[in-house]
Amino acid sequence: MTAQQSSPPSGQGETGTSLPPGAQIVVRDEEWLVKNVTRTDHDGDRIEAVGISEFVRDQEAVFFTGLERTRDGEPGIELMDPAKTTLISDDSPNFRRSRLFLEAILRKTPLPQSERGLALADSFLLDPLPYQQRPAQLALSGRNLRPRMLIADVVGLGKTLEIGLTLAELIRRGRGERILVVTPQHVLEQFQHELWTRFAIPLIRLDSAGIERIQREIPAGRNPFTFFKRVIVSIDTLKNTDQYKHHLEHIRWDAVVIDESHNLINRGSLRNQLAQLLAPQTDALILASATPHNGNARSFAELIALLDPAAIRDPERYSADDIKHLFIRRTKVSAEVREKMSGQWAERGRSESVRCAATPAEEKIFEELAQVWLPTESRSVSEVPLFPYTLLKSFLSSHAALGSTVETRIKTLEKKDAPSTTGAELAALHRLQELTAGLTDQDSAKFTALVEQLKEIGVGPRSETRVVVFSERVQTLEWLRSAVPAALGFKGKALEEAARVMHGGLSDEQQMQCVEDFGLADAPVRILFTGDVASEGVNLHRQCHQLIHYDVPWSLIRIEQRNGRIDRYGQTHKPQFRALILTSEVDGAKDDRTVAERLLEREDEAHRSLGTAEAVSGLYRAEAEEKSLIQDLLKGRTVDESLQHTAEEAGGADDFLADFFAQVDDTAEAAGTPDSDASAPDESSAPPKADVPRLFTTTREFVDEAVREVYPDAQQTLGMDRDPENGLISFKPPVDLVHRLKALPPDYRREQRLSERLLVTLNRKLADRSLVRARESGTSSWPEISLLTDLHPVVEWLTDKVLVKLGRQEAPVITADVEAPVYLVQGIYSNALGRPTVVKWMAVTGDEVTDDMVGILREAGIGPTMANPLQRHDLDGLRAGIPAALETAEAFLSLHSSEWDKALLAPIEEYRQRLGKWEQPTLAGEETKDDLSRLADSLLTTGRPMLRVLAVLDSAHGSAAQA
């Protein structure tokens, strides 16, 4: 960050000064507190600030160093000259004001780029599982120039939590101010809910209507994506690049998250175009998918290129080593996952095949299909080879689905008006139509079996047991929704409320409502009939551990995805899976034993031995698996023969993919520091913790003291109530805090009436109980009580309140157990992007300097129990020593800067070596290489350090003290 002055003060760089969050600046004769700083291409540095002087207090503003000028044409943003710091006395009890000020500076200052450890991992509302912390560790490792990665953990391991942990660490480093999350529409609310309730990271959910509403409210021409800093949007909304391209091209993000990123692979698709548009506009990029590839080496290489264009030299052939700095993947049987999840994630039961003998009416259809459509000795009546299997799969789903498929096909052939070529097939279709038309619920063996299984599970009017029933066909889902509740004995209002249907034809709001209702314990829904729209990313395990496949998809991947809806992290009951298998006695009939039953067995075998069924076929895509299987069935192969054949076929040029996905499971080594040797920590070692200096040992202590300092009469001013037993804090938020709360999800603010009263706590157990109660509620999944993490708006608000208790460029003098005055000085080196590379907290005594400021404070007796003797100090004499202290501090920084830079240089040099080997015979390739080389240069420390005098420790009886 650059804030130029006519003559740089001591400690400021000739090319400009670095403005860390927490610094105070003067712009237009008003004082402002710096919140965030980002570099722009043409207008200097973009400074987000909040007003602290009387006229602009609590107002938010944005300034650009390249645009702000005084009337005389001088630079209009002034960072206080540290040599001109004014020293003041502190008359607060126990030097509370000074201690809070120092703690606030420690909290507001971003961790430097060289700090690879995790700072916040243990402070959130989730279990501290090392395997879920590995992605954050990888993102911070420096192995890539930017925090970019693909999280490819298999279904159910908690990718959303891993993303939340990573974003939290980026925020703590000043690299997460502006966040865009892109997800499928049906998981928008679920993702938003997890990030707020677990991490206190608020996201505003936007859809096309929301974006249009913002455009109406803001001045013409303003970018609607600048209205909120952290947003979550469905990929189906944003993929309309023609509508939003102009806005997205002109906005920079600190972090972009794209969930279910396998949907980005198809080149030329709208989703792929969106990804290509967003990737260059963000620093951090996090892709997440349990199935991140389609078995094609080039397609997967294109996905990796979004993260690092120079990672792969040959998109047709590469290895795990090429992308280990970008990729992390674990399964449920991975050593670290298995060890840490023991007892916390119930083992799934085996998939149970429930055989249903076809009724006489169904046998007639089997006979018609076997003799006319899928004969073994003669040609099918259909000229389209795959269509008979479409009919078969429809019938194996339900007579309702078969009837719809037949009707659609008849209309298609009749439009052709070619009786000579379509007459025989039309006649056969009409026969099927007649056979299907008279079928009732009682003619369906699967329907009868489903009702029996639901009753056996315990679903009924007087039970709270829930079950998910999957089917591929919308007609089947709608029929089951209308028929099953009555068959189970539901009546009256319960008959309408007991079952819900979810499929891709519903709006995003309808889909999200289905998921939310099914997850609320008090909601009346007992059965969720859903299509495979719910097989990706949706959490259905909160109140459910029973799943029934009414029909079975002809894909191992799809079966695994379905099962993963209830077999996932947080499941406390043993997941139970059943599949209805329709059987026939007709010779040559291809019933569910032909394909479905065997696929269930193979998926179960793969899950238990490999942790995933994804690589069994070697095709890596559900659609490709089903298409290949049908083609092999046409050739007379069995399911096992087909899987073996496709695996062997895929084992040609792309065989390395399977080997590659086996190798990348060594996550601890992959996530290790760039200069780690062969003795990198194994998976039994937790990710390293950051060295975060703190004057207060806990956030609780800081919040308690901050409230006493800022609102000494909080009970009267804020109506604050505190429960000493459970730690609940209740208060009416003042106007400036209400303004900050606008960044929270609107429905959450509205439902909980946050502008009227806030319920917060530092007790993790209380917050967790509140979250559980919300899930058990029948009205809202938003908890009443939120956990005060370091990222919570209330904690950030109090931190800013504490900072502005001191005036412009003031530093307190603290009476302490020291022999000579000790000057506490903050020193920050930054890179060309304005991000801190080295942050040092120094204590200067004469010519001696230590960078353990917190240690010196503790040795000097600075703490909550210290007394404030209200000693008068020679403030002028102490101030006279400031220039020398700053000079000594800068000399100390200069002496050791090259040593500290080693932590930065190692990964950058490693990347340069990789970049040197990456050659592309195109102009675009050379331009990419030049861009990446410039990016590497911009990450190195540049210029002189920014210095700031924080406080002075003086003895009560020293030469600078007065009686």
Structural account:
By secondary structure, this protein is α/β, with parallel strands linked by helices. 40% of the residues lie in helices and 16% in strands. The chain has 35 helices and 30 strands. Strand 16 (499-502), helix 19 (508-519) and strand 17 form a beta-alpha-beta unit. It is elongated, with a radius of gyration of 32 Å. The relative contact order is 0.13.
Annotation keywords:
disordered C terminus, 963 residues, 35 helices, six-stranded mixed β-sheet, seven-stranded parallel β-sheet, disordered N terminus, alpha/beta
Residues in β-strands, percent: 15-25%
> Would you identify the regions where 5 or more consecutive residues have pLDDT less than 50?
1-17, 662-669, 673-682, 959-963
Class by alpha and beta content? alpha/beta
Helix share, percent: 40-55%
Q: For the residues shown, what is the average pLDDT?
A: 87
Number of strands: 30
Question: Assembly type of the shown chains?
Answer: single chain
